[in-house]
Design a protein that fits this description.
Layout (H helix, E strand, L loop, with lengths): L19 H14 L13 E4 L13 H13 L12 H6 L2 H6 L1 H13 L4 H14 L15 H12 L3 E9 H4 L3 H5 L6 E13 L2 E12 L5 H9 L6 E4 L5 H8 L6 E6 L20 H9 L2 E4 H4 L7
Parallel strand pairs: 1-2, 1-5, 2-3, 5-6, 6-7
Antiparallel strand pairs: 3-4
Helix pairs in contact: 2-5
Amino acid sequence: MLLALPAMSTELLPSWGEGEAKAAIVDFVTAVTTEGSSDYVPPADRVATFDNDGTLWSEQPLYVQLAFALDRIRDLAGDHPEWRDTEPFKSVLAGDMAGVIATGKHGLAQILAASHTGMSSEEFSRIAADWIATARHPKSGKLYTSMIYQPMLELLDYLRKNGFEIYIVSGGGIEFMRPWAEKVYGIPPENVIGSSIRTRYELRDGQPVLMRLPEIDHIDDKEGKPVGINKFIGKRPIAAFGNSDGDFQMLEWTTSGEGRRLGLLIHHDDAEREVAYDRTSAIGKLDRGLDEAPERGWVIVSMKTDWTRIFPK
């Protein structure tokens, strides 16, 4: 069973401390939802986009989808004895992450191709849903679906109650996220945008299927995020939420539009309750965003000081 959405308190954003970040969110939502206000935005145009990894759930010590891919390689290894002597599979099977990293982008592409393709979209969705239902975070030992951020769940709920249409816009795989996003975040599969591979319509045993091919269709990261938003939503958001430089262009495009806008970055600066990382991190690097957020009017949320709680109880 996947994690059920926790019941929300009637208090406004209860896991957010009273400060500039919470005030900026409430001021923005109040302004764009108050009829007669010069900043009023009709409900049909209240579009908000959220990155997933590091914004809605934990992305350290490695991306959840990468953990899924590595587990898939281990599960499939019995059918591929040649992997024992072939990189990057050799390092994966040996549990040697340094060796996996040393194979670079080419090695990662091989891992993703072997673990994510050669099956129908429906088969892949079942595999992803089954995995996420039991997979656990390597440090906390909790289900990955428990490693979601309570303050962000409250923010999603707050925006919904104020007439916002919410989308995930992630560098993660679209078909990896869609099977569980609604149960975990309340975001339906049609509102999930992510990186994708090509698919091909085929008849298998007389039944139509969409087969997943080892070819990239769209990379939904950095410049690819505004492209994906335009392609799948067809509207420029009025609010965008991220945590890394991979989200920079999404926030830049969102806040460059006319009228009242909100750009917000989650800063992982709480080493005690989660993980502290930013400018030099290989995962979720936040460097340019930290430098340019003030001049662009973006809100930087300190997990350490702005959140009274990190994870659901």
